[in-house]
Amino acid sequence: MCWGTVGLVTLPADSHVHSEWSWDAPLGSMERSCAQALDFGLPAIAFTEHLDHTAWTVALDGIHADDHLAALATPDGVLTPPGFDASGYLEAIERCRERFPGLRILSGLEMGEPHWHAAACAKVLEAGRFDRVLGSLHCLPDGDRFAEPSGLYAHRAAADVVRQYLAEVVRLVTGSGLFSVLAHIDYPVRYWPEHEVGPFDLSAFEGEFRNALRATAQSGRALEINTRIPVPPTVLNWWHDEGGDAVTFGSDAHEPSAVACGFRQAAGMAEALGFRPGRNPYDFWARVD
Predict the structure, then answer these.
(1) What does the alpha-carbon distance between residue 94 and residue 281 come to, in Å, rounded to a whole number?
(2) How far apart are CA 30 and CA 96, in angstroms?
C-alpha cells in the first residue's frame, strides 16, 4: 500500500527496483516500470536485481503449490535462489535506455549478504557496469542453516531477532567493500509479530540501531530510505546524529505499480532533516549542515 502524497518539487530517483530479472519478482517488468517512473515524474530509476547466494529455510506450509517459491524449495524446506543472468539483464537495460530516452536508467544489483559471498559477488560485478550496488541482509544464521527474520520469529524471542539482525548489519558494512548503499536497515520490522508480542517499539532498540548506523556512516556508505513500510523520522535523525552524509530512496518494488511508492513524503522527510539533491538527478542526496 502506497503512502499518500504531498506537494514537492524535487523527486528523487528510485534506486531500488526489481524487474523480471529478479528471481522473486514474477510480476516484475523492466519496461513497464520505466513507463511508471516517467508517469510519476521520476528523474531516474535503478534496477537493482537480486544477487543471492545464501540458501535458507522456509516454512513449506506457508507456500502455496502454485507459488513461484515452491519450485525453488527442497522437500525439507531449503530454498536456493537461482543464478543471475547478468548478460541478459544488461542487454535489457540497454533496450530500455533506447526506448525511454527521457529517463535516466541505472543498472544495479542488490547483493544479499555480500560479506559471506565475496568471491561470488565479485565475479558477477566483473560481467559489466553496475551503476548502483546495494548491500542487504535478508538472512541470519539459524543453527547449521539460515533463515529470514519472518521464520526466526516463530521460535526465537522477537527482540533477540532484531538485535541479532542489527549486529549482523555491522559485520556486513565492515566486512564487504562491494556495495555503496545499505538497503532496508529496518528489514526485520516488516515481519514483526505484532499479534503475538504487541506493536514494535523502536525506542527499545535505539542503541542497536545507532551502532549499526554509526558503522554504516563510518564506512562511507549511503543509507537507503526504503519506502516499503514508512521509515520513522527517528531513524533518519539517528543517521544524522551518527554522521551519516547521504541517503538514497528505494521503493523495493517487485512490480511496476509499486515504483516510487511513498516517495513524496520520504523526500519531504529527508529535506526536513537537511538532505538535499545532488547535481545530477541520480546522485545520492547529501547532507547539508
Answers:
(1) 19
(2) 8
What is the pTM for the complete model shown? 0.94
262: left (phi over 0), alpha (psi -120 to 50) or beta: left
| Grid cell in block for residue 12 | 528523487
Per-residue pLDDT of the chain (289 residues; tens, 9 = 90+): 343 333 444 789 999 999 999 999 999 999 999 999 999 999 999 999 999 999 999 876 655 444 667 678 888 889 999 999 999 999 999 999 999 999 999 999 999 999 999 999 999 999 999 999 999 999 999 999 999 999 999 999 999 999 999 999 999 999 999 999 999 999 999 999 999 999 999 999 999 999 999 999 999 999 999 999 988 999 999 999 999 999 999 999 999 999 999 999 999 999 999 999 999 989 999 999 7
Q: Which residues of 230-250 are buried (b: 16+ CB within 10 A; e: fewer)?
A: ebeeebbebbbebebbbbbbb
Q: Mention the CATH class of domain 14-287.
A: alpha beta
Rg, Å, the chain Cα set? 18
State how far the Cα of 202 lies from the Cα of 162, in Å rounded to an integer: 10
The strand pairing partners of 215, in sequence order, are none
Contacts of 260 (CB under 8 A, 6+ apart): 11, 14, 36, 37, 40, 42, 251, 253
Helix or strand (DSSP H, E) at 2: none
Q: Spell out the domain ranges in the chain.
A: 14-287
Dihedral sign for Cα atoms in the order 95, 97, 98, 99: positive
Q: How many CB atoms are located within 10 Å of the residue 262 CB?
A: 23
